[in-house]
């Protein structure tokens, strides 16, 4: 079976979804970025965008389950695009009930003809008709508990086994199932300009339903409506940000005249949050390695009308070459990490990470923390955060850092909203996606001991 053409089939949602799935499979880009590009190139109508998103994310999220359903019906080897086309069809047959079965089969056969030839179309037709006749096999018949969880939730077995060892079966099961549930959008209210009550009222008048979080006071859940095109967003009253990502800035305990450093700042979610909590007399230096990413911080700073942020393009592992040692009251290291806490937003991550990635990230994270300890003044506070739940990058990075830096200690008592205190213990906070229904996150809070100690 050979591929005949990849010419764009304008307006065709399923062909568009297939082209995204193929690019993700070839590691060409992340699904969320491809989705935006494909909506443009395929000229997908407004009403079909939600279906395109659902098909794309659904097939990536359920890849291993779909393969498990497909396998008994396949004789011989299938080309990647044919297998992904069958995933797309099985996904619709099993998980969506608004599209009639005959329409699903018909459309898949048409795509097979267009991308391949009549022979491929006959194979696709035959497999789908057999599935309709016989049904898909049960996952419950898998004996091994971890393998069953891996197939049911479509997370690679090695990750499931690793997490069961680290967190136990129940926590892992809750986490992998939550990873397949779409997140609720959250926004952060810019406290420098307004209050949550005023924003809730203003959104209500525009027909947008939001609810205030009981965890982070400036966080609102968007229950109905879209935020990105509202005036409140354009004029900097709110920022779209996951709730977990708001917590590191709370834990930084910003005081009005602080000199603050954000060492891994782009695209600026936490930097702008810190700046919103800082008085005009305080200052915030925000650093990132990449110029194009620093531009994104500048854009957000401008939108939010913040005038206390100074951005720098630099390697934060070498910042003491350009910034004065022991000169910052607060430092945030929101480190590069494996991102295993954000699988709900970027489902492709779970198939591409390897254990060796955790080790190399651990080294980078330690180098960044080393530099942070040089730049922090005695009695200053350092917050370390990642959006992963992987121990190598979290607890183990913290322990290795403490072992090397006797001048640093974990802060056991911190001010937090009451509803969050149960997640904080011994200077650290590990959030799973199921805890606040938000990203999986890790945060550690350090203090540099005073000169007399
Ligand atoms: C987790 S992201 C930061 C997210 C950001 N704090 C926010 O809330 O929007 C990590 C960032 O670290 C940056 N980074 C990675 N290595 C770096 C280095 N050596 N020096 C400075 N920035 C680095 C990456 O470019 C990336 O933007």
Describe this structure in words.
By secondary structure, the chain is of the alpha/beta class. It is globular, with a radius of gyration of 24 Å. The protein folds into four domains: 122 residues, Orthogonal Bundle (N-utilizing Substance Protein B Homolog, Chain A), CATH 1.10.940.10; 35 residues, no CATH class; 55 residues, 2-Layer Sandwich (Alpha-Beta Plaits); 206 residues, Vaccinia Virus protein VP39 (Rossmann fold). The chain has 19 helices and 13 strands. S-adenosylmethionine (SAM) binds next to helix 14 and strand 6. Keywords: Cytoplasm, Methyltransferase, RNA-binding, rRNA processing, S-adenosyl-L-methionine, Transferase. Its EC number is 2.1.1.176. It is an enzyme of class 2 (transferase).
Defining traits:
453 residues; alpha/beta; N-utilizing Substance Protein B Homolog, Chain A; Alpha-Beta Plaits; 9-stranded mixed beta sheet; 4-stranded antiparallel beta sheet; 19 helices; 13 strands; globular; disordered N terminus; binds S-adenosylmethionine; cytoplasm; rRNA processing; MeTrfase_RsmB-F_NOP2_cat; rRNA_ssu_MeTfrase_B
């Amino acid at each position: 079976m050979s591929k005949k053409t990849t010419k764009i089939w304008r307006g065709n949602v399923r062909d568009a979804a297939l082209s995204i799935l193929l690019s993700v499979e070839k590691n060409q880009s992340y699904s969320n970025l491809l989705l935006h590009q494909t909506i443009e190139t395929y000229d997908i109508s407004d009403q079909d965008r939600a279906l395109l998103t659902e098909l794309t994310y659904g097939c990536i999220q359920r890849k291993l389950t779909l393969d498990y359903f497909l396998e008994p019906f396949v004789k011989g080897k299938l080309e990647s695009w044919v297998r992904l086309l069958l995933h797309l069809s099985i996904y619709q047959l099993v998980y969506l009930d608004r599209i009639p079965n005959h329409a699903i089969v018909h459309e898949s056969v048409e795509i097979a003809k267009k991308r391949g030839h009549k022979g491929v179309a006959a194979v696709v037709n035959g497999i789908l008709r057999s599935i309709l006749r016989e049904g898909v096999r049960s996952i419950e018949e898998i004996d091994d508990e971890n393998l069953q969880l891996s197939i049911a939730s479509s997370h690679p077995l090695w990750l499931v086994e690793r997490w069961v060892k680290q967190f136990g079966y129940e926590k892992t099961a809750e986490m992998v199932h939550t990873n397949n549930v779409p997140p609720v959008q959250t926004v952060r209210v810019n406290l420098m300009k307004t209050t949550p009550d005023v924003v809730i009222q203003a959104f209500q008048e525009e027909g947008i339903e939001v609810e205030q979080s009981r965890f982070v006071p400036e966080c609102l859940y968007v229950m109905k409506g879209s935020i990105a095109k509202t005036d409140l967003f354009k004029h900097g009253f709110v920022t779209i940000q996951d709730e977990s990502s708001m917590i590191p800035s709370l834990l930084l305990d910003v005081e009005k005249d602080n000199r603050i450093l954000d060492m891994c700042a782009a695209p600026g979610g936490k930097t702008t949050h810190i700046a919103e909590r800082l008085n005009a007399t305080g200052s915030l230096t925000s650093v990132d390695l990449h110029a194009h990413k620093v531009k994104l911080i500048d854009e957000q700073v401008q939108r939010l009308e913040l005038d206390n942020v100074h951005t720098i393009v630099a390697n934060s592992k070498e910042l003491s070459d350009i910034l004065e040692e022991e000169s910052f009251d607060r430092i945030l290291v929101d480190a590069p990490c494996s991102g295993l806490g954000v699988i709900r937003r970027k489902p492709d991550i779970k198939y591409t990470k390897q254990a060796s990635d955790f080790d190399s990230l651990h080294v980078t994270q330690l180098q960044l923390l080393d530099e942070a300890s040089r730049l922090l003044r005695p009695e200053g506070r350092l917050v370390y955060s990642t959006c992963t739940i992987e121990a190598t990058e979290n607890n183990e990075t913290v322990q290795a850092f403490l072992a090397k830096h006797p001048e640093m200690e974990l802060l056991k008592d911190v001010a937090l909203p009451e509803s969050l205190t149960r997640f904080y213990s011994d200077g650290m906070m590990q959030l799973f996606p199921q805890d606040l229904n938000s990203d999986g996150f890790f945060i550690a809070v350090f203090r540099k001991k005073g000169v007399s100690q």
